[in-house]
Structure formats: C-alpha cells, structure tokens
Amino acid sequence: MNLWNQLRLRPRLMTAVVVGSLLAFVWPGSVAWQTRLLLGWNLVIWIYLPLALWMMLGRAGAQDVQRRARSLNEGTPVMLLLAALGALASLAAIALELQTARQSQAPGHVLFALATVAGSWLLLPVEFGIAYASLYHRDDKAAHGLEFPGDDGPPDYGDFLYFSITVAATSQTSDVVVSSRPMRRLVLLQALLSFVFNTGVLAMSINILAGLVS
Asked: Where do transmembrane segments lie in this chain (predicted)?
C-alpha cells in the first residue's frame, strides 16, 4: 500500500500534515530553514496527537477497534518508519535550535526545543500503540501476542497505549505478557528506539545544564 492510501485511511494524520505544513509555510517573519522545518514538525505533531489520543481514549467499542486496526495493518511498517525517522531527525534539529538559543540568549528557543522533545517523544508510543493493535487483530486464528490481565473483555486502544507508553518510559512490559514472536520483535524495536531517543534527550539536557552553569 502506498503512502497516499495509508494517509487516506488516517484522516487525522492527513489533516495534521496538511494544516501543519501550510501553517509552517505561511508563518510570518524571517525564519531560518531548519527552524521553519522544526516548526512544521511541531505543528503537525501537536495537531495530530490530540486527534489520535481522542480516537484511542474515546469510547470506541471492541468491534470498532478491531475494524480500524485491521484497516491500518498493511501500512504499519511505513508509518512506524516515518515516525521513527522524524523523531530521531528532530533530535538533530533540536541541537541546532539549542545552539541558536545559546547564541541569542532567547528563552523562546529553549521552550521551542522542549515542545519538540515532548511531541516527538509522545509520537512514538502513540504510533506503536496503533501498531500493537493492528498486529493483535491481524489474524483471529493466530495468537494475539499480548495477554492483558483482568476480565474486562477485548482490549481497546487505551490498553495498547498503556502498554506502549510503559515500554517507552520504563523499557519493560509491566503486567502485560508478550506471547508471540512477531509481537516480541515489535516490542524490541520500540525498546531500542526509545533507548536511543531517551539517551539523546538526556545528553542534550546535560548539555543545556552545562551551558547554563557556564
């Protein structure tokens, strides 16, 4: 499935990409190209995340979750790749933005970088939560791959988001059991990406503190 078809199946993401890109393009004032790109990335993320979280944490029934998950299954690798590349590339852009902040002594640059870090960090577990749901519902005849405790019925997007944020924040799976090889590989991928991103954020935080002290 090509990227356009996958965006068509994700109206929230398409809306965020179109609106965010247009706003970044027409943003007034003279702005460096890397700052304008980072601005566009922020606008897309902060438009998309509330829409995605509303969908995931809303009152969609189990059948709605299953239907959405299966419709998005084919394009999941592409979306994860784009989210991971975007999040990691944003680290390099943030480093440039912090260099500008250090030269100009403007607190707005630091706040801008912090907003980028927060948005990029949240994007990965949201996309992986959607990916876990798609893999879970891919085939009724095969093992789902995640075993949620309790007797609340089939998991909803909130359960997958809980699992995904737990992996991103703690690098462990808490009370959810991973019971299939494809799911273990997906969890491993998220854990590695989260480790790289969290390490990059930690390194930049130490750099910022060192700059403030000096």
From this structure: 12-33, 39-57, 78-98, 110-133, 187-213
Question: What confidence tens digit (pLDDT) does each residue in 88-136 have?
Answer: 888 877 777 666 666 665 667 777 878 888 898 899 999 999 999 999 9
Decide: pTM greater than 0.85. yes
State how far the alpha carbon of 198 is from the alpha carbons of 169, 186, 192, in Å. 9, 18, 10
User: Tokens 């959405």 correspond to what residue?
Assistant: 68
Structure token digits, residue 103 = 């030269």
Q: Give residue-wise pLDDT tens across range 17-68.
A: 899 999 988 888 777 777 788 889 999 999 999 999 988 887 666 777 888 8
Question: How far is CA 165 from each of CA 24, 141, 159, 160, 168, rounded to the nearest angstrom?
Answer: 29, 28, 10, 9, 5
| Listed residue (166, 168, 160) closest to 132, CA to CA | 160
